Amino acid sequence: MPNLNSEISTPKSICIMGLGYIGLPTAAILARKGYDVHGVDVRVEVVEKINRGEIHIHEPGLGELVEEVVRAGKLQASTTPREADVFFICVPTPFNADKSPDLSYVRAASEAVRPYVRQGNLVILESTSPPKTTQETVVPLAIPEHLQVGKDVFVAYCPERVLPGRILIEAVENDRIVGGVTPACTQLVQKFYETFVTGAVLPTTAVAAEITKLAENAFRDVNIAYANELSMLADDLGADPFEVIELANRHPRVNILRPGPGVGGHCISVDPWFLAHAAPNHSSLIKTARMVNDSKPQFVVDKVLKLAREIESPVIGCLGLAYKPDVDDFRESPSLEIVIQLQKACVGEVLACDPYAGPMHCSGVTLVSLEELLRQSDIVLLLTDHKPFCELPVNLLQGKQVIDTRGVWKEEPRVVLHGENSRESNRAWPPAA
Ligand code: SAJ
User: Fold this and answer.
1) Ligand 1: centre distance to CA 268 (Å)
2) Which residues have C-beta within 8 Å of that of residue 298, sequence separation ≥ 6?
3) Whole-prediction pTM
4) Closest CA to 178 of 199, 149, 152, 147
5) Residue 307: which of 391, 243, 365, 378 has the closest Cα?
6) Ligand 1 proximity of 164 Cβ (cutoff 6 Å)
7) Regarding beta strands 176-180 and 201-205, do their DSSP bridges make them parallel or antiparallel, or are they unpaired?
8) Which domains are delineated in the chain?
9) Is 61 a residue whose pLDDT tops 70?
């Protein structure tokens, strides 16, 4: 292989397509590292906000960092790309109604950078993508015909692996995978990541990197499905699922995850379908896990309705709408889905509280303060374990029917999703002496 390190000049300027949960933190981290970063987003209001040094998402530490790098002139945003040494594609990859991948954003971003891609550039796809997207979508759409991949320009798939809530730490400290379209692509892009990542940067091929990313999220989905299936099973049999899991986890080789109201977010509830779609004959476990997790919200709804029907004009207070604790992301959220289903059932009044929700996130949902919710509700349903809810003094739940889908209110008696025969089923909290 030629010595590419000496043939290609050190990158200085970056153009990032998509300024969402991945693109904006990546832009800010690279700007802090000294690169000149040009961020691109189709949403004018997002671009204007970033150029004022403000942010449109909630992520610890990101606001301060964006303010700092915008003020220093290292990050600026726009609705159109421009020439750069390195192009990043960090756009959403949702799925269609039939669960097939929707690559329209990747296509649009690839086509948008094409007029700006020059000899010596790196083009990197970070969006979670179905196998072969880099080779079959990014290369043909983003790379001008006169440039040869692996010789003139260098294309790779480098999946993001960050956990919302810890993005600024994990984007730098996690090990990264670099899957080049050719070995030369891998080599150059690996070298570039090593300039800002402190974790190991592991070389592979584009398709192996694409499958690896999906395999990580499918692994987590399958494991959560096991916890959720177990919770429904234990509940039907009259045992406390959280107690069963706690006890099982005392075995030295068992580590069951936590059940909840279902699996949400833009990643784990979506990505396994990309694998299933790519390999329909070898993904029965992956598909089953998806279905188990998708069945959990209805299980919770049925439990609440059963309890509500025993109360005259019940007020159901739902705590948490985001897909997981301490984030402002409501995409594919099982908590939000449960609240909407409860409203549709018309069994009583449904109130909701979420420190991160505004009317624009959750239209049609009656949002109230935590105090108001606790004052009015007959049934308190914990859906998303945001910090203020976990820290709630338990005496505030006195006399309420409590359903805790996350198992966070540990004080006895724990009133969780119990079945008919459970010794703690549907009891007011605390029970009468
Ligand atoms: N959940 C449970 N029980 C658990 C753990 C999670 O019910 O024990 C639920 C959460 O409440 C949430 C969903 O699963 O609804 C997903 O949450 P998460 O924290 O497991 O994952 P995400 O979607 O926020 O981020 C995942 C991460 N992937 C893995 O951990 C393998 C992250 O590293 C990825 O970068 C991210 O997907 C992504 O962008 O792909």
Assistant:
1) 6
2) 341
3) 0.91
4) 199
5) 378
6) yes
7) parallel
8) 8-199 (3.40.50.720), 217-404 (3.40.50.720)
9) yes
